[in-house]
Backbone:
């Protein structure tokens, strides 16, 4: 009997969005966010991406409109988004609209457990349309969310439904 040809996994491209004040990681409230810098988080994500044959497009901005422009620009070229919108998680209808309009699945990420903090952080304008939410594992939240998104995008049921680079 002829052997099944091995499935060739084409590289996926994933957009990684870091919102306001995340450029300060490492020195910003380390008792809440830890001492890992955004550059170190980027290196860790890149290692996961390389191992999984995934490419990434990364943005950090303190400006809501810049993040929205970036989501709109990337939407056609990525299979999904990993999103730590920082404070905009709790306030930005416009960023939510941009992510939903992208038509791409996204995972919401937080270093801290937002539900164990101030009540205004318990509300997320992104969560109900997210594929999943990972919150409270420090820098590991990113790795966990990234792996979860990759696994989701690689499921056979998703094959062909997302752009690849
Ligand atoms: C955060 C949680 C948000 O409430 C906060 O505004 C941030 C960081 C986190 O990663 O824990 O900026 O998204």
Residues:
């Amino acid at each position: 009997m002829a052997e099944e040809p091995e499935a060739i996994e084409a590289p996926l491209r994933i957009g990684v969005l870091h919102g306001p004040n995340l450029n300060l990681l490492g020195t910003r409230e380390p008792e809440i966010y830890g001492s890992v810098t955004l550059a170190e988080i980027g290196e860790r994500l890149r290692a996961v991406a390389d191992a999984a044959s995934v490419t990434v497009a990364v943005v950090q901005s303190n400006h809501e409109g810049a993040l929205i422009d970036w989501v709109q620009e990337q939407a056609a070229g990525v299979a999904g988004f990993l999103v730590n919108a920082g404070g905009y998680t709790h306030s930005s209808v416009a960023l939510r609209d941009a992510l939903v309009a992208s038509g791409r699945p996204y995972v919401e990420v937080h270093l801290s457990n937002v539900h164990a903090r101030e009540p205004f952080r318990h509300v997320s304008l992104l969560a109900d349309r997210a594929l999943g939410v990972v919150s409270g594992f420090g820098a590991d939240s990113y790795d966990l969310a990234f792996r979860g998104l990759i696994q989701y995008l690689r499921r056979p049921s998703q094959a062909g439904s997302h752009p690849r680079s």
About this structure: Strands lie at 12-18, 54-60, 80-84, 106-110, 132-135. Residues 12-154 form a domain with the Rossmann fold fold (CATH 3.40.50.9100).
